[in-house]
Write a structure and sequence with these properties.
CATH architecture of the largest domain: Up-down Bundle
EC number: 1.1.1.-
Radius of gyration: 20 Å
Keywords: Membrane, NAD, Oxidoreductase, Transmembrane, Transmembrane helix
Number of domains: 2
Helix content: 40-55%
Pfam families: ADH_Fe_C, Fe-ADH
Order of helices and strands: EHEHHEHEHEEEEEHHHHHHHHHH
InterPro entries: ADH_Fe/GldA (IPR001670), ADH_Fe_C (IPR056798), ADH_Fe_CS (IPR018211), Alcohol_dehydrogenase_Fe (IPR039697)
Mean pLDDT: 94
Family: Belongs to the iron-containing alcohol dehydrogenase family.
Strand content: 5-15%
Low-confidence stretches: none
CATH topology of the largest domain: Dehydroquinate synthase-like, alpha domain
Number of strands: 9
């Protein structure tokens, strides 16, 4: 067994109605003015107004930055930083999926330590704690409420940069199932699959440990047993809660075990073609699973069991691949990169970018750029 370390340095609250504790948590953080970072879609759905009402009822002043887009850019981060400084906020409420949370973490770094987000690219470059962040997920997908990553598009390079530091983990995470029960089915499907892939890649990672394995296994059990039901009926409170907790456990798993080629390859797809992160991951997963089967040490059979409850006497890794393909088809997700506008000409550039990701190093099967290019072609 390899050496490993872990810690769980935050407070996580789960349950219907736990959102009501937001003013209390902001007060505990010593903040009387918070910047709510979210997006226009959640504003239209009334989620932002719900946070505003809670702040007002609790006597917490608030300002809103709501121009976060999917695959947020460094320019978006700079605008949010300026908003934070001008309004005099002393904390951040990150409301949304991965995009608002990525922006909130980046803003937290810059208003505390200065500079530009590119200055912190890579691992361990954030020199100390950041302003208090309360994360409220509105999808059961990214697990960003418990992770140490912020992923931002550098517009000049058309490249998704990653800031990795445990200082980025939000101080509080509020997991209220009511916040995800109005998702469109397509978003429930793609974000749920994203959470599943987090757990799968963490479980297969070369950096996996008993701690990350425990988190990944519970995540897969919860997601495998509830993804279909939640996509079919988002008002299913039990399925919504299970998906939210499963996504959280998956986030903790990959925060400590990293990911693999699926995520390394999906980031360039999103940066260059604007494809939603969960959709890009879903398309790439079966191809990467087939490629990684050569390195399987028995974990593919365990993955199939965790996701389906089935034990196959004459198991072959292709059985897991086939199960995943069937699931993606049932959920109505795209299955080829060509369906979402990716072009063959971009493959060399995407592969070069993918090779810059530390996730390639954690992938169970060693890969060079030629391998990544071939995987993209197969996924076309």
């Amino acid at each position: 067994m390899n050496a490993f370390t872990f810690q769980v340095p935050q407070n996580i609250l789960f349950g219907m109605g736990c959102l009501e504790r937001l003013p209390e948590l902001l007060s505990k953080s010593g903040s009387r003015h918070t910047l709510i970072i979210s997006d226009r879609g959640l504003e239209r759905l009334g989620a932002v107004e719900r946070i505003i009402r809670l702040c007002e009822a609790g006597g917490v002043a608030h300002t809103e930055y709501l121009d976060v887009m999917p695959n947020p850019t460094d320019r978006c981060v700079d605008a949010a930083v300026e908003c934070y400084r001008q309004c005099g906020a002393t904390s951040i409420v990150a409301l949304g999926g991965g995009s608002p949370m990525d922006v909130a973490k980046a803003v937290g770094v810059l208003v505390t330590h200065g500079g530009h987000i590119m200055d912190y690219e890579g691992a361990g470059r954030v020199p100390g704690p950041i302003v208090p962040v309360v994360a409220i997920p509105t999808t059961a997908g990214t697990g960003s409420e418990v992770t140490a990553f912020s992923v931002i598009v550098d517009e000049a390079r058309a490249y998704k940069l990653t800031v990795f530091s445990y200082e980025l983990i939000p101080r509080y995470a509020l997991l209220d199932p009511s916040m995800i029960m109005t998702l469109p089915p397509s978003v429930a499907a793609s974000t749920g699959v994203d959470a599943m892939i987090h757990a799968m890649e963490a479980y297969l990672s070369r950096d996996a440990s008993p701690f990350s394995d425990a988190m990944a296994e519970k995540a897969l059990e919860l997601i495998g047993g509830n993804l279909r039901a939640f996509t079919a009926c988002r008002e299913n409170e039990q399925a919504a809660g299970a998906m939210l907790v499963g996504a959280m456990f998956a986030g903790i798993a990959f925060a400590w075990a990293r990911l693999g080629n699926v995520h390394a390859m999906s980031h360039p797809v999103s940066a260059l073609f604007g494809v939603a992160h969960g959709v890009a991951n879903a398309i790439l997963l079966p191809t990467v699973l087939e490629y990684n089967a050569l390195a399987d040490t028995g974990r593919y059979a365990r993955l199939l069991y965790l996701l389906t409850g089935r034990r196959e006497e004459n198991f072959r890794p292709q059985m897991l691949v086939d199960e995943i393909r069937s699931l993606l088809t049932e959920l109505g997700l795209p299955t080829r990169l060509s369906e979402v506008g990716v072009t063959e000409e971009a493959i060399p550039h995407m592969a070069a970018d993918a090779m810059k990701s530390g996730n390639v190093l954690a992938n169970p099967r060693q890969s060079v750029q030629r391998d990544i290019e071939e995987l993209y072609r197969k996924a076309m």
